């Protein structure tokens, strides 16, 4: 979801007239919390036990080591980005993480790699047992609010990947809509017809959900008399509400969550391009609205570094130097249990995280070119 956004924010902030001095004005609008907990780089590593999809017969066994190297020895920097779909009343209790992305910035600071973890990944959530990855945020937030939700999710991700984190951030989808509206909308090219399960209209023209999601698998069932919002194949301009609805869809896409990840990536790329455009950078009022919306949409933990410090650290990145990698090669690996459709990370994905721990994702991408998401 986030490819290009960090680079765009940093560059836009520095170009805002007055450089980092100007950015400090927007830094004050960013909510700061202690989010990382035991997943922070300076916290001691925990024992890691990972269940992965079996490798084809004859292949070597792959897994994360039980005793990982100290986090301080891991080269480069790691950031955990979480997008939440928080509805009214869910901010502090029960919001689920719909987008979980690990960002690895190379030791030289000139490359960044983004790996989106499937929300249905089968994981062991500390203190809660086996569940889907996105449940970790909901479990932690019930008593600890956003900070508790992120900390439990981050601890779970650390156990899955072996990575400790130098920073973490939350953005809710309502905030993303505000950012898109602040830049005047974005241009997107829809690659596959996408039918909304969230937005539709009844015979009287009133907005209402066009599908019911039937548990336990949340299979969408059409609601009689309601016409769903449809995004046909082709390129056009999207307002904030359309862009938000478009990137939330997965139930009716041929490739499910991987399709949603791709659409989220396309949106953030388009948003980054819009932030860099003359219509925003060349218009002080538009740039002010955009950076204010970004700041108000973020909850951030820099693990001892300020937002300004991170802007300076990342300002050398350009969208072309930010690469997104697919987990499981973009293919769903089913791990059903008790009627629940989990996804299980395959051995090559665990190799991917091993490469991140050793700051050699460039070599991994060269060996697995089909795991690289092309720049939109």
UniProtKB/TrEMBL annotation:
Residues 96-275 form the Cell envelope-related transcriptional attenuator domain. Residues 41-68 are annotated as: Disordered. InterPro entries: LytR/CpsA/Psr_CW_biosynth, LytR_CpsA_psr. Pfam families: LytR_cpsA_psr. PANTHER family: POLYISOPRENYL-TEICHOIC ACID--PEPTIDOGLYCAN TEICHOIC ACID TRANSFERASE TAGU. NCBIfam families: lytR_cpsA_psr (TIGR00350). Belongs to the LytR/CpsA/Psr (LCP) family. This is LCP family protein.
